[in-house]
């Protein structure tokens, strides 16, 4: 009698917009899982958020920044 306002997608088609999927896919649920699956977008998003958090921590984030700097120096010297 009443028409349904819901539109059901065809069989096998997800009911999410592509933009929403891209945004949700950009942020990892687990960094280790993202690294294991070679999901570069998720690893980069985590790295950016991690760097922003360390910078926002100020003086209390200095030991983490020092550790990351020495880790990067060690990795680059072992590759050369």
Describe it.
With 80 residues, the protein is an all-alpha fold. It contains 4 helices and no strands. It has helices spanning 18-26, 31-36, 40-57, 62-79.
Provide a compact summary of the structure.
This protein is mostly helical. Helix content is about 65%, strand content about 0%.
Q: How do the strands and helices of this protein lay out in sequence?
A:
Elements: H1 18-26, H2 31-36, H3 40-57, H4 62-79
Which band does the percent of strand residues land in? under 5%
Determine the number of helices (DSSP H or I, runs of at least 4 residues).
4
The parts where pLDDT drops under 50 for at least 5 residues are none
How many strands appear in the DSSP assignment? 0
Largest sheet: none
By helix and strand content, what is the structural category? mainly alpha
Q: Please give the share of residues in helix.
A: 55-70%
Mean of pLDDT: 84
SSE ordering: HHHH
Distance between the termini: 75 Å
Based on Cα principal axes, name the global outline.
elongated
Radius of gyration: 21 Å
């Amino acid at each position: 009698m009443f028409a349904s306002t819901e539109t059901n997608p065809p069989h096998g088609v997800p009911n999410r917009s592509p933009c929403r999927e891209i945004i949700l896919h950009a942020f990892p649920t687990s960094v280790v899982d993202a690294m294991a699956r070679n999901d570069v977008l998720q690893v980069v998003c985590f790295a950016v958020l991690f760097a922003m958090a360390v910078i926002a921590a100020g003086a209390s984030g200095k030991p983490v920044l020092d550790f990351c700097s020495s880790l990067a120096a060690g990795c680059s010297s072992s590759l050369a």
